Amino acid sequence: MTELRLVELSAATVEAVNNLSLKPGQEDFLAPESYEVAASDVDPATMWQRVVLDGDDVVAFVSANFDDGAPQEYFRSVLWRINVDADEQGRGVGRFAVQSVLEEARAQGAAGVHVIYTADEAGPGAFFERMGFSPVGETEYGEVVALLSL
Questions:
Q1: Residue among 74, 35, 79, 46 at smallest CA distance from 60
Q2: 3-state SS assignment for residue 106
Q3: pLDDT tens sequence across 82-126
Q4: Which residues have a Cβ under 8 Å from the Cβ of 74 and sit 6 or more positions away?
Q5: Which domains can be identified in the chain, with CATH numbers?
Q6: Secondary element (H or E) of residue 138
Q7: In Å, how far from its chain's centre is CA 81?
Q8: What digits encode the pLDDT tens for the residues 35-44?
Q9: Which residues contact 35 (CB under 8 A, 6 or more apart)?
């Protein structure tokens, strides 16, 4: 693995992001229902979307939202989505992506970052807990809301 770096999502990288592969069963955890509902309320100007490159290869996509005016508190500073290519998982790519979101949150003056996920043994909960997120509640759809205070 060469040095990981971030670039903004662009026309040059979007196709590779759309072609990131998943491990069997991971498709069930791509986006909780509440994300789909909230997406209509998100101001595109507050979205932070980045592609993780290893050399010139797209290995992950990460998206966050930083909007003090979001109607739900947990959408004011939230790790919206993280997709790491199946072949790249377990190599620190996800950790790099989450740490990048945390750095951006600090730069924007956020007190913490939320993440929302489906509670399931096969889901991403254990990864987020290893990263320092702690469950603090549930969405109206029963998904876990976790927070990492900065």
A1: 79
A2: helix
A3: 999 999 999 999 999 999 999 999 999 999 999 999 888 878 999
A4: 114, 116, 137, 139, 145, 147
A5: 4-149 (3.40.630.30)
A6: strand 134-138
A7: 3
A8: 444 454 567 7
A9: 80, 81, 116
